[in-house]
From TrEMBL, chain B:
Major location category of this protein: membrane
GO cellular component terms given for this protein: plasma membrane
PROSITE patterns linked: ABC_TM1 (PS50928)
Protein known as: Peptide/nickel transport system substrate-binding protein
Pfam families cross-referenced by the UniProt entry: BPD_transp_1 (PF00528), BPD_transp_1_N (PF19300)
PANTHER family tied to this protein: DIPEPTIDE TRANSPORT SYSTEM PERMEASE PROTEIN DPPB-RELATED
Species whose genome carries this gene: Salipiger abyssi
Family: Belongs to the binding-protein-dependent transport system permease family.
InterPro entries: BPD_transp_1_N, MetI-like, MetI-like_sf
Automatic annotation (TrEMBL), chain C:
Localisation per UniProt entry: Cell membrane
Similarity comment: Belongs to the binding-protein-dependent transport system permease family.
Membrane topology type: Multi-pass membrane protein
Protein name, entry field: Peptide/nickel transport system permease protein
InterPro entries, alphabetized: BP-dependent_transpt_permease (IPR050366), MetI-like (IPR000515), MetI-like_sf (IPR035906), OppC_N (IPR025966)
Pfam families given in the database record: BPD_transp_1, OppC_N
Species this chain originates from: Salipiger abyssi
Length: 554, 305, 302
């Protein structure tokens, strides 16, 4: 094996005083070889991004590396000056970020922004710079390079922008490429394309790639070697094959066990159960306002939506961003008024009810939202927010409070927490609170609108389990809205796939996964990362041996 | 685009119309305008004659409609005091006020933008504290008092610049400082806040990851974005300043439109006051429109779809 | 970033329990130097205003033509009139102390009128959007297009310079910022999912506005209130200075500066003292406003 491109030895990065732990990264050692993709995996707060930012010299001022070495190009990056580090950036090491939507400057054309690389680091003439830029655009498979060259970032899609950032990173053929969650913000099909592109680049360039991610399926797709981090430390390290199939450390096993897979227990047949919720011919259009230079336009967000859900069923509604699934949800809970169509709840059509007539029916459909931080009012106690619903429907406050205490136990939170404020809870706990709040009014239908998308996988797994339990215990009907087919497969009985406002596929989970009929569904399924990886059953792995280097450098 | 501009103009006209209606009714509802013209000691015959001549006995909406019809033809009435067309009187004075406004806004921008940028780049540094001090003091200091203090120091004690009048460029120095300083805190705060926000934006991180030199990151990537809202604030401030010139011009006896307004108020010259309110509000509308155009010109997200 | 990963479900909030919003606010307040300075300065002025009769020996209106233009003690005057006397022989300290009442009253009442008009318009526009928003935006534009000083001067000139008139005119002219800021703050809060959740839980419109919107835009409202209070105080002083605000012999600071202007050349302290008083009052209000903005920044994502 050749010499590593990057060699991190015993790196420790301090957190500012008063944080929840003293070090963001502790005694971390890591090597990256040319043409090798090393995935750093971990949940939020594990220190995986800090490692990449330290290497790039882009750490926020509050964080300082306190010991260790980062050897790159024969020098210790922790010892060189900021301006020397800046000279390496872009030329010898480059970075791709998580958020393609905001990673480019809105005021300049993308051509200009790529060319800056050449302006800064080379003496190329303008014509040559332009030619090289166009060639880069071609290399990352952007159509019509000439047109893209003169485009502004906002005129491009997220996937296109990520390609621009990649083109920029490749401009000077760096020895090290750092990709920090480069596909997390992208739709599934775009993610697949970008991963494919990165694999292709490994063939054509000699760069070593540090790939930071939280998603084991992406790891399975792309990694040569894997490093698993927890709370600033490496807990396990090895080839992708080893770590994915024979994880040694309990934490790695926990994470792999939480990877959404179709491990759903078989349920009783739903045949013969009454239809609880039925939607027919639902239409919704939006008018998007124009401005001085752009005319307004009309978006058809829901086109003739039709489906029925039986009592006790979990229906998954799957779609990428812009598919109209959120609008559909808003129409169901009547935060938006549908233009046309009917929504029957237990035989009553609530689609055209006035606000007043709707009131008693409100409590029949409740919802848990995506953002655990935006869905609780920061200025009211948990208890106050939980009794809100019952009190609005005429229940006695004390009685409602007693019910709130019960529900807190059901969602496995301390009833004493009712006196606290939302800022005192973690994301997963907040989602539990939101579930409890929805259940306070004893709804028939619970809508989970991307309710676990913002959570770490291990937390996600707990919340999903809780949702299933509650559904069975209370006989709830659940609409599970998600962009993630893997999660949907885990909890749903039936699926609906939406694209551009219309339902393109429907059926049982087995049918949709086994024999998809619509090309879009086929494409979505094909885009799933990690398909070649059979997730090992963690419970059947040999127990962790004492010798397997828990918590230290392997 | 054309449709948008037409809509925008229509709205502007509606705003101007509403402003004129409000000011007209305010001015003409208060007391008997005939007495204002004739004076407190005028005989009842005189007052009756004046009422007759100006048509004050007609219902207010009729008088307003009358005013509006001539206003639409560019006739904003005749001054009761000078017996000249108000447009002519105001036109003579506008030059001074516009000069003062432009000087003052330039002064404010030249002071505020560099300081705001420097403060944002090094928070809590000496320059940040200085910027904070200037803006806190600027917000708290009454401009008329500041003007008087400047007169005491620079005109009376040091004898460097004239205290009043509008004959030479020297007469504009103190008024420019006073009026410009009034607009400085808002612009400086916005620049600082905008720069701090932009500097933490993802695309600045991208620019740094590209290894660009810090000056280029700061001036090409950060400032360009941060300055967009500042420019439109400045345009709006310019509109406010023209309206606010009344205080400054009367302290320094600068013979602009603001001074005219003050004179007209003490002379009870309602047509001139009415016309001035309209003119100032049209300037405000014009500047906000310019701000929108500038914004779109600077921000490709608004310009190219 | 710092969100605790995988907090085990059964345990209550991890580590030392974070503070409630109110405790956190209090802690930040006690550490905020601007707040302490602003409150102290403001406290002194309010104290003087309230207890003016006890703190002064003379009435602010009593003229003593034999004791005109006495300088203050620090310029060689006598202790009897420690801040000197004005051109009519009135005790300058008394006028200053009673003048604080005028300024504070005008500031508070005018800002209250504006706050009511502006926040009702702003919150309704922000919450409902659409046509309501268009109408409110139009009103804001009309208001912004009217030159404040000119209109205020004209109205006071025509209706007379009583305290009532000045307060009402300022109150009716200064609501724009309340409306603009609360409109956009409400728009942001309205997008948050807890508002949707409250609606789905059957909360009535007034309840949503009162329980979920208002508390979360309150910090903006308080900050703008201080700004507009300061604005009203400065405007009143400017109007009075131009002779078209509060009328003599009322002890308004603006009026005192205006009266002192005649003696600018020989007795500059006549304008310096009320000017400094005005500056201190406005400064303390602004510092208070800035501090409140820092202290009440909503607790959210850690």
């Amino acid at each position: 094996m050749s010499d590593p491109i990057l060699s991190i030895r015993n790196l420790t990065v301090d957190l500012p005083k008063g944080g929840d732990r003293p070090h963001a990264v502790e005694a971390l050692s890591l090597d990256i070889q040319p043409k090798e993709i090393v995935c750093i995996v971990g949940e939020s707060g594990s220190g995986k991004s800090i490692t990449s930012f330290t290497t790039m010299g882009l750490l926020p001022k509050a964080l300082t590396p306190s010991s260790g070495e980062v050897i790159f190009d024969g020098q210790d990056l922790l010892k060189i000056s900021a301006s020397e580090h800046a000279k390496l950036r872009g030329r010898r090491m480059a970075m791709i970020f998580q958020e393609p939507m905001s990673a480019l400057n809105p005021c300049y054309t993308v051509g200009n922004q790529i060319e800056e690389m050449f302006e800064q680091h080379t003496d190329l003439a303008a014509a040559e710079r332009r030619a090289r830029t166009l060639r880069l655009l071609q290399e990352v498979h952007l159509p019509e390079p000439e047109r893209i060259y003169t485009s502004y970032p906002h005129q491009l899609s997220g996937g296109q922008r990520q390609r621009i950032v990649i083109a920029m990173a490749l401009a000077l053929d760096p020895a090290l490429l750092i990709a920090d969650e480069p596909t997390t913000a992208l739709d599934l099909s775009t993610q697949a394309q970008i991963l494919h592109l990165l694999k292709e680049l490994r063939e054509h360039h000699s760069a070593g790639i540090m790939f930071v991610t939280h998603d084991f399926d992406v790891v399975a797709e792309i990694a040569d070697r894997v490093v698993v981090m927890k709370e600033g430390r490496i807990v396990e390290e090895g080839t992708a094959e080893e770590v994915l199939n024979r994880p040694q450390h309990p934490y790695t096993r926990l994470l792999i066990d939480a990877v959404p897979r179709r491990t759903r227990v078989e349920r009783d047949s739903l045949d013969g159960r009454p239809e609880l919720l039925k939607v027919a011919g639902l239409e919704k259009t939006y008018h998007v306002k124009g401005n001085m230079f752009r005319p307004g336009r009309i978006v058809h967000a829901c086109k003739n939506i039709e489906f029925a859900v039986r009592k006790g069923e979990t229906l998954g509604i799957v779609g990428e961003s812009g598919s109209g699934k959120s609008t559909l949800v808003k129409c169901l809970i009547r935060l938006e008024d549908p233009d046309e169509g009917a929504v029957w709840v237990e035989g009553t059509n609530i689609a055209a009810f006035s606000k007043r007539a709707l009131h008693p029916y409100r409590k029949m459909i409740q919802i848990v939202f995506q953002d655990p931080y935006g869905s609780l009012n920061p200025r009211r106690t948990i208890g106050d927010q939980l009794v809100e619903g019952p009190v609005n429907f005429g229940r006695d406050r004390a009685e409602a409070m007693a019910r709130a205490r019960e529900l807190m136990k059901i969602v496995r939170l301390d009833p004493e927490a009712l006196n606290r404020y939302p800022n005192q809870f973690s994301g997963g706990q907040r989602q539990r609170i939101c579930i409890a709040r929805a259940l306070m009014v004893e709804p028939k239908v619970l809508i989970a609108d991307e309710a676990v998308s913002a959570l770490d996988v291990s937390v996600q797994k707990e919340v999903l389990k809780l949702l299933n339990e509650i559904r069975d215990k209370m006989g709830l009907t659940v609409l599970f809205i998600t962009h993630d087919l893997r999660v949907a497969a885990q909890v749903c009985d039936n699926l609906i796939v939406m694209q551009q406002g219309a339902i393109v596929e429907r059926g049982t989970v087995d049918k949709v996964f086994g024999a998809p009929s619509h090309p879009y569904t086929q494409q979505l399924l094909a885009a799933q990362p990690g398909q070649g990886w059979d997730v090992p059953d963690v419970s059947k792995l040999p127990p962790v041996s004492a010798a397997s280097g828990v918590g230290g450098v392997v | 685009m054309l449709l948008y501009i037409l809509k925008r103009l229509g709205l502007a006209a509606l705003v101007a119309l509403t402003v004129s209606a409000i000011s007209f009714s305010l001015l003409f509802l208060a007391g008997d305008p005939a007495i204002s013209i004739a004076g407190e000691n005028a005989s009842s015959e005189d007052i009756a004659a004046i009422t007759e001549r100006y048509g004050f006995d007609r219902p207010l909406p009729v008088q307003y409609a009358d005013w509006l019809v001539s206003a639409a033809q560019g006739d904003l009435g005749r001054s009761w005091y000078f017996d000249l067309p108000t447009t002519q009187i105001i036109g003579d004075r506008l030059g001074v006020t516009m000069t003062l406004g432009l000087l003052a806004i330039s002064f404010a921008l030249i002071l505020a933008i560099p300081m705001g940028v420097a403060a944002a780049v090094r928070p809590n540094s000496l320059i940040d504290r200085a910027a904070l001090f200037i803006s806190v003091v600027g917000q708290a200091i009454p401009s008329f008092w500041f003007g008087l203090i400047l007169i005491v120091v620079f005109s009376i004690k040091l004898g460097l610049v004239p205290a009043s009048g509008s004959d030479s460029w020297k007469h504009f120095i103190l008024p420019t400082v006073v009026l410009g300083y009034y607009a400085t805190p808002a612009i400086m705060r916005l620049t600082r806040a905008g720069m701090i926000e932009v500097l933490s934006a993802d695309y600045i991180r991208t620019a740094r990851a590209k290894g660009l030199n810090p000056r280029k990151v700061l001036f090409k990537h950060a400032l360009r974005n941060a300055v967009i809202p500042v420019i439109s604030l400045a345009a709006v401030q310019m509109g406010f300043m023209l309206g606010g010139s009344i205080v400054v011009e009367s302290i320094f006896a600068l013979h602009g439109a603001g001074f005219l307004a003050w004179e007209s108020i003490s002379r009870n010259d309602l047509p001139v006051m009415q016309a001035l309110i309209l003119v100032f509000s049209m300037f405000y509308i014009l500047f906000t429109f310019l701000a929108d155009v500038l914004n779109a010109w600077m921000d490709p997200r608004l310009r190219v779809g | 970033m710092t969100q605790t990963a995988a907090a085990s479900p059964a345990t209550p909030p991890a580590r030392e329990a974070p503070l409630t919003p109110r405790q956190a606010m209090l802690r930040r307040a006690l550490r905020h130097r601007g707040l302490i300075f602003g409150t102290t300065l403001m406290g002194i002025i309010v104290f003087v205003a309230i207890f003016a009769p006890l703190l002064t020996q003379y009435s602010p209106y009593d003229q003593d033509l034999l004791a005109r233009m006495k300088p203050p003690v620090f310029l060689g005057g006598e202790a009897e009139h420690w801040l000197g006397t004005d051109a009519l022989g009135r005790d300058f300290w008394s006028r200053l102390a009673y003048g604080a009442r005028i300024s504070l009253m005008i500031g508070i009442f005018a800002a209250t009128i504006s706050a009511v008009i502006g926040s009702v318009l702003g919150i309704l526009a922000g919450y409902f959007g659409g046509r309501v928003d268009m109408a409110v935006t139009f009103l804001i534009n009309v208001r912004l297009a009217m030159p404040v000083v000119l209109v205020a001067l004209a109205v006071v000139a025509l209706f007379g310079g009583s305290l009532m008139v000045v307060v009402s005119v300022l109150g009716l002219l200064l609501w724009d910022r309340f409306a603009v800021v609360l409109r956009s703050a409400t728009m942001q809060v309205r997008k948050l999912e807890y508002v949707a959740a409250a609606e789905v839980l059957g909360a009535s419109l007034p309840r949503v506005l009162w329980k979920d919107i208002l508390p979360n835009v309150m910090n903006h409202l308080i900050v703008i209130f201080t700004l507009e209070m300061a604005h009203a105080i400065i405007l009143e002083a400017a109007l009075s200075f131009l002779g078209l605000g509060v009328q003599p012999p009322t002890p308004s600071w603006g009026l005192m500066i205006s009266e002192g202007k005649e003696m600018l050349l020989f007795e500059p302290w006549l304008i310096t003292i009320p000017g400094v008083a005005l500056f201190c009052l406005v400064l303390s209000i602004n510092m208070l406003g800035d501090a409140i903005r820092d202290v009440t920044a909503p607790e959210g994502r850690n």
